[in-house]
Write a structure and sequence with these properties.
It contains no helices and eight strands. The protein has about 140 residues and is mainly beta.
Length: about 140
């Protein structure tokens, strides 16, 4: 079982306000993390260069998409977002939001805005985002 890892996501400590995510696995072509947000937080609209998956562990959130489309995630539900699709996460519940996330690229890759530029950091919303730190350059196909 060398290299095999087990995690108890349901008992993971909450990410404190100002945090963003706790990396569980970071490999060259894949990473897994716990995403935590507090009530009222809304990230920016962005997209990635790889497919992404979110599973709601606790709390509730709304995923917003271009054109006003939106979908709620509650515990036990998940979403798969194909690379290049814009989305925005908002904690619309009244409690801590815990998501399990996975993306088919290493952590730290650039995020992209609707106009194809590098997405702004979420630091304006009170969360420390990786774009406030050095990012791994990438290109949007």
């Amino acid at each position: 079982m060398t290299g095999i890892k087990f995690f108890d996501i349901g008992r993971a400590p909450k990410i404190q306000p100002g945090g963003r995510k706790r990396i569980l696995v970071n490999a060259d072509q894949f990473h897994v993390w716990i995403h935590g947000d507090w009530p009222g937080f809304k990230g920016n609209m962005h997209k990635h260069t790889a497919d992404e998956f979110f599973y709601c562990v606790c709390g509730a959130c709304t995923f917003h998409f271009p054109g006003g489309a939106k979908q709620e995630l509650t515990p036990g539900t998940c979403v798969v977002i194909p690379k290049g699709e814009l989305y925005q996460i908002e904690n619309t519940g009244g409690e801590y939001l815990g998501l399990l996330g996975a993306r088919a690229e290493a952590d730290g890759m650039e995020r992209w805005s609707a106009n194809g530029g590098i997405a702004d950091s979420d630091t304006k919303g009170g969360r420390l985002h990786k774009s406030a730190k050095p990012r791994i350059p990438g290109k949007l196909d």
